[in-house]
Amino acid sequence: MSGLGYRLAAVQAGVADAAREAGREASEITTIVVTKFHPASLVRELAAHGVRDVGENRHQEAQAKAAELAELGLNWHFIGQLQSKKAKQVRAYAAAIHSIDRPALVDALRSDEASIDCFVQVNLTDDPGRGGVAPEALDELVERVLGTPGLSLRGLMAVAPLDEPARPAFARVRELSERVARLAPDARDLSMGMSHDFRDAILEGATHLRIGSAITGNRPAAG
Ligand SMILES: *Cc1c(COP(=O)(O)O)cnc(C)c1O
User: Fold this and answer.
1) Could you tell me which residues carry N6-(pyridoxal phosphate)lysine (predicted)?
2) Domain map of the chain by residue range?
3) Which residues of 82-107 are buried (b: 16+ CB within 10 A; e: fewer)?
4) Atom 6, ligand 1: which residue's CA is nearest?
5) Stretch 114-138: mean pLDDT, rounded?
């Protein structure tokens, strides 16, 4: 097996272990392999290993790869900060957008076409540059998503802060998710957990993991 195949299998085993530890079914957890900065050939290799869900954080790169690999029928997850003027273009190839973080982006995604799955990203730090909506403004943004045609709210997304343990941070997301469920009972998914903290995320209820380097190896330098 290739290095990629081994790393993928190791992460899948880690996901299964954490699910067992949490008393959950591994089948209820979707592992999105984050392929940013890697060439389309790597995504093709992942698909050959059975990967169906891939994540990208830059529109131009994602659009190009999705077009090149269209015949594979993969689910492309957009996980990066998104400019409003690019929103409509992302709708065209993405299965889900994980980074809804402000009202202007919600408005830009309004559409009469089939709904796209989306997650509202919560900022767990005090630094607005880290992306995501502040918890105080969460309910209002969720209500805006719910009132916007063309968007299907799945739940919340978050990135653990760098300067504190991941597990209590993920527990905060789970608590916020209870609040969201009062507004949208079906929006209970949690997109959280990366290469170094996916076990903690699974223990706190993650349904969508976004795992890059643990599977792909180190990323090439940004182009
Ligand atoms: C790059 C990225 C990931 C994956 O990070 P790894 O540490 O490589 O697993 C997950 N989520 C977001 C938002 C990212 O930008």
Assistant:
1) 36
2) 3-216
3) beeebbeebbebbbbbbbbbbbebbe
4) 212
5) 95
Q: How far is the CA of 79 from the centre of ligand 1 (A)?
A: 8
Residue carrying structure tokens 């065209």: 92
The per-residue pLDDT for range 141-184, each reduced to its tens digit, is 999 999 999 999 999 999 999 999 999 999 999 999 999 999 99
Q: What pLDDT score does 42 carry?
A: 97
Q: Atom 4 (ligand 1): residue with closest C-alpha?
A: 212
Establish whether residue 187 lines the binding site of ligand 1, counting it when its CB lies within 6 angstroms of any ligand atom.
Answer: no
The pLDDT tens digits for 54-106 are: 999 999 999 999 999 999 999 999 999 999 999 999 999 999 999 999 999 99
Residue 33's region, left for phi above 0, alpha for psi from -120 to 50, else beta, is: beta
By C-alpha distance, which of 178, 194, 184, 201 is closest to 117? Answer: 184
155 vs 21: CA distance, rounded Å: 23
Among protein residues, the one whose CA lies closest to atom 11 of ligand 1? 210
Determine the CATH number of domain 3-216.
Answer: 3.20.20.10
Is pLDDT above 60 for 223? no
53: tokens are: 């869900």
Residue nearest to atom 12 of ligand 1 (CA): 79
pLDDT at 219: 78
Q: Which residues contact 91 (CB under 8 A, 6 or more apart)?
A: 97, 109, 111, 113, 116, 150
